[in-house]
Design goal:
Two copies of one chain form a homodimer. The model of chain A has no long low-confidence stretch (mean pLDDT 97). Chain A has 384 residues and is of the alpha/beta class. Chain A contains 14 helices and eight strands. In chain A, the strands form two sheets. The first copy, chain A, has a six-stranded parallel β-sheet, with helices on both faces. Chain A has a two-stranded antiparallel sheet with strand order 6-7. Chains A and B meet through strand 1, helix 7 and helix 8 of A and strand 1, helix 7 and helix 8 of B. Strand 1 of chain A pairs antiparallel with strand 1 of chain B, so a sheet runs across the interface.
Chain lengths: 384, 384
């Protein structure tokens, strides 16, 4: 196990009716920016519950945060916060709204050009407090210090990390997710599953707590995923999905272990080129990446196959192949097709993505830095 | 799954040489009380590492915190803190020193008689910040908001809980535990194992993350426990033990699930009567409690047997019996005998403990409140 520092200060109110806890998180002088995406929270009752909990506190609202939140939209929120002396950013929505809230929280007190936080890794020395009412289990953003922001005007999509942007509190009521479209739920399950794999399917460092917790989350997603899609109003199924998705990326399983994230790097390029849902790109990339990187990842693939899928019979190669097939089958079982052709995308994307990465100097990705643009091309060719 | 609020704000520096991180946790005006037990930290190098990290910060020391920390000792520390305007309590040692530090931290700013915090559940509205350098993996006190304090002068042993006493930071360097006596290591493993069982072996509420994380910790303790006793200087084994022991009682696996704690209640009485090590009392009580309570706990015993011990064959009763036998065998494998007679204690203790609990009105314990003094007597008779 490698050395690490673990710190996750987010307070999480989880369960039925927990939006009512929002009022306990406010102080007498709270001035709130409510940040939201589209109108679904108006129709599923979340918005009215939030407003009831906010009571008479001065509340300003900014709607229209996009999937892949956009810098220009968020800068309007920054202006609003500065003008109205907002002291709490409340994200009501999914991971995109949360990521947007994190950027706004960091940008408001930032001295200088906020774009530098993303483009130049300018240090974030403080941020407004952030709260969240999560309505989509997927990204783990409700309990971590990371955010991904897009700037469509110049075709950029960049991430930043800071201990100051962990939400002060997050509220997760599984019932508020019952009405989500199946496509969004499937995407969320696939996203959470891949988050675990990025932190787990690397090489062994004898980190047993991290490994077994990762395997636990994977097994839960495998068991619960198809069932909660089939019966979306079963509370326990949805609650287990929500809590598993939080743990998939609340940093606990990533402590003291190598991490990969190559599937995300490659997937982001496919989204940039073809506008494909993030989770679908991961479902395309990961099974193929496992196949291409099967030597480097062999020990963990065998461990994952045995502990998550019960694959213990046959030759080592047969077990590796069966484990990759099971992984592919899992994505398919939650409605995520795993071939470029399933989405009508030509195999030419393989060279395009490789060239884009090479042009930006992204030439050594993965936990060993051994995934070159050539490897990326091979991975995507095999995913045709 | 039941509703819950989860919040664990402790920052943990984990790994080789991490005591050096202590200096990063101090501010220019830090005035420190170093709280310690016996002299082992002088011989194993921990004290000199701590002193080097504290540098020139004003540091006051109070040594001699007992196993089962004593109120009268701790009140000397409270006086010292008030006199010297200490603003950080630094526990250097195991769970007893940590629990003592938590009481001191709460007592210093407390208005009124500090004993009321324990005896009358007087509300703790603030506490001095607490830091810890942990030298014994066992209690989880390095990452929770609970403490147990004894007052030998009047024969009391009482607990208190507060969100204000979670350590601000804890440092865990597995190498500093290599020199611990086998008896203390075995006790620590048994203590951590039982902490998990108290939160897990109740009745099912479909809390899959909590269940699978609990089973993960149990499996790790089963695998790592005997090995780390046999090869105490193997870093990865010891690191996995340390990290598993923290997760055994950092509140994560206890969220949204019923909890038992009857083995602890009963065990505390045996310690009070016979001065037996805490972990040994748990090793005596838990296997017998599982047997007596096997109807109420049946579903979870079968789940635990299958997932932790791989017991899936035979009749339900055969699997329950085999699972209890495996649990007993585990305690024995780490050096904890599981019968009263192994420690020369007469079966008369069964009625004594039952009477003591009845006299204090402790008549309904366990996750269903169905363990009466009569049941306690039966449990201890079967543990003869």
């Amino acid at each position: 196990m490698e050395n690490f520092t673990f710190h996750n200060p987010t307070r999480i109110h989880f369960g039925r009716g927990q939006i009512a806890q929002l009022s306990s998180e406010l102080s007498a002088d709270s001035r709130i920016l409510l940040l939201a995406g589209g109108g679904s929270i108006r129709t599923n009752g979340v918005y009215s519950q939030v407003k009831a909990s906010l009571g008479a506190h001065p509340t300003f609202e900014l709607w229209g945060v996009e999937a892949n939140p956009d810098y220009d939209t968020l800068m309007k929120a920054v202006d609003l916060c500065r003008r109205e002396r907002v002291n709490l950013i409340l994200a009501v929505g999914g991971g995109s709204v949360l990521d947007g809230a994190k950027f706004v929280a960091a940008a408001v007190p930032f001295k200088g050009e906020p774009w530098d936080i993303l483009a130049k890794n300018a240090p974030v020395e403080s941020a407004l407090p952030i709260g969240a009412v999560l309505t989509l289990p997927a990204t783990g953003s409700e309990a971590n210090g990371a955010a991904v922001i897009s700037r469509r005007a110049i075709g950029e999509k960049l991430a930043f990390l800071s201990p100051h942007i962990f939400p002060r509190f997050s509220i997760i009521d599984p019932e508020t997710t019952f009405s989500l479209p199946a496509r969004q739920v499937g995407n969320g399950i696939g996203d959470a599953f891949t988050h675990v794999m990025e932190q787990y399917l690397t090489y062994p460092v004898n980190a047993e707590v991290q490994d077994r917790f990762a395997e636990s989350i994977l097994r839960i997603l495998v068991e619960v995923g198809p069932k909660t899609l089939a019966t979306p109003t079963d509370y326990d199924l949805r609650a287990n999905l929500c809590w598993a998705a939080t743990w998939a990326l609340n940093t606990a399983i990533g402590m003291g272990v190598p991490q990969d994230w190559a599937s995300h790097v490659i997937g982001h390029e496919i989204t940039a080129l073809h506008g494909m849902d993030h989770a679908r790109t991961l479902a395309i990339v990961l099974p193929s990446l496992m196949n291409v990187q099967q030597q480097a990842k062999r020990q963990k693939i065998l461990q994952y196959g045995a502990r998550v899928w019960g694959i213990t019979e046959g030759s080592e190669q047969a077990r590796v192949d069966a484990t990759i097939a099971k992984t592919r089958g899992f994505y398919e079982s939650i409605g995520l097709k795993t071939r470029l052709s399933d989405y009508g995308i030509d195999v030419a994307v393989a060279a395009n993505v490789a060239n884009r990465l090479a042009a930006r100097g992204v030439t050594k990705i993965g936990e060993r830095g051994d995934i070159t643009p050539e490897t990326v091309e091979k991975i995507l060719r095999q995913a045709a």
